[in-house]
Predict the structure.
Amino acid sequence: MTKVLTPTAEHEVAARDGLWMSPADAAMITGWSLKPEGMCRAELCVPLPASAVGANEVDVQAFWQKLGGPVVVSEARDVWALGAPAGERNAALEGLQAPEFTLPDVDGTPRSLSELGGKKVFLATWASW
Amino acid sequence: MWQTLYDELKDKNFMVVAVAEESRGAAHARPWIEQAQASGKSSYWQLIDTEHRLEDLYNLVNVPQAIWIDEQGRIVRPPETAGSTDHFRRMDLKTRTMTPEDQAERLAARQAYLDAVRGWVTTGKHALPADAARAALPKVTPEIAEARARFRLGVWLRANGRAAEGDGQLATASRLHPQSWSMWRQAADLDEVGKASGPDFWKRVQALGDQPYYSPPKL
């Protein structure tokens, strides 16, 4: 099995030769579904070169790089990380709508920024180090 | 530091969300959190971000940084230093003390920042118009995006008993995004608690020369 990390999740899938996997696994990991016109999310489709699509499988590495996202892998090539494309992050911030997140509090209860709608929020980081 | 602010302003439709960028996890952050909170009091959110997800989403480079978000969920001040200053760079490293003048200036800068937050909550002052907020956003580059992915992978490898391999990824992340003190210091801390403020840290700080460690907020 191959481990695939995304910015917000961690998946384990059957993949071969890098990140060739079933369209169902590709959709679970990326949120994009394989269709005749390419990989699609809602109304938007990104065409894929023929070299990135096989019989009931798709090359998620090639797709992710086409989106402009970084793909990195451990030395043993068993753990991969797909990063958010720079353009996607910039567009989200430039829209000025504060990006939504869910993180656990110190007791493990998940908290989401969207729960605080209607309030002014002072969002600050710190660390022990 | 934020408890006073929260206590003072909580009845004004205001919330503090403090996020610990702490790859060692909740147990490691808990003593600081308990010390920061007055016991038994209702409090603001204290969240734990082991993967530095917030730094990825908001393009952050150091702690403490803060983002101000209005009632509509819009960013009205982009990421900026939240109350810390560079006076520490001039401290006597043997005694770990600052001159009284530096201590006073540092305190005044922190106070000015806290006053700005108070001003924002009570009158709306210091909230930036959309174009100014947008112009002040730091840009995510492809190198930064790759650094974030490598950081994510490095933290995962370390958490799964593959420290040497993880450290390799974390070091590459820091090379790709040298402006991120969070990545470098978190990696140093994962290697050994205390290392994030050890001799290598001071060397990196000295190498900044005239560049700020904490860019002052433009209030």
